[in-house]
Amino acid sequence: xxxxxxxxxxxxxxxxxxxxxxxxxxxxxxxxxxxxxxxxxxxxxxxxxxxxxxxxxxxxxxxxxxxxxxxxxxxxxxxxxxxxxxxxxxxxxxxxxxxxxxxxxxxxxxxxxxxxxxxxxxxxxxxxxxxxxxxxxxxxxxxxxxxxxxxxxxxxxxxxxxxxxxxxxxxxxxxxxxxxxxxxxxxxxxxxxxx
Length: 195
Ligand code: GTP
Ligand code: MG
Prior knowledge:
Blueprint lengths: L5 E7 L11 E7 L5 H9 L17 E6 L3 E5 L10 H17 L3 E9 L6 H13 L3 E6 L6 H15 L10 E2 L8 H9 L3
Parallel strand pairs: 2-4, 2-5, 5-6, 6-7
Antiparallel strand pairs: 1-3, 3-4
The protein binds guanosine-5'-triphosphate and magnesium ion.
Magnesium ion binds next to helix 1.
């Protein structure tokens, strides 16, 4: 589905810069450094497509990627921490919130959760915003290669319990590793079946 046909379209810094809402759109949200850009690279099979980095706050714009003429994949700036001056951070956070609550063609928001940390208060804020905006969201656990199989169950339960309180949550939780490839094919097929 994605290989060879995903291209970077543009980075957006204000709502009036969004591309026309003329196709299916899915976005990747999550705390800074959770692995959003890495996941997009893994999904599309193109390593350097979305810029991934060790520095939290690397993605500072809403980055749009096109998959043929069918989809937009959207890489969002992280929330929760950023290595930038406060006014700049507040500007992104406002943009992020406007985007998440005001994009008609946004079919699903994938909310990435670090498998080592589970859902935090800052994540809850975003989940609540998505509930209010009636945007269906799905949780994706990232970096599962960094935890022991036994600990996966624990985070999984924590996330499942948290999701049960959110009306906009899609119940299936996807476990992924962009490094090792776990869950990538699953996530591709989830996106491919959206209408
Ligand atoms: P911001 O744009 O700053 O919000 O970060 P991001 O969510 O886009 O995270 P990014 O993809 O840049 O990854 C952050 C760090 O985590 C990088 O050093 C990645 O190499 C690492 N990382 C991402 N996914 C995985 C994974 O599945 N496994 C492991 N071990 N490391 C990962
Ligand atoms: Mg990023």
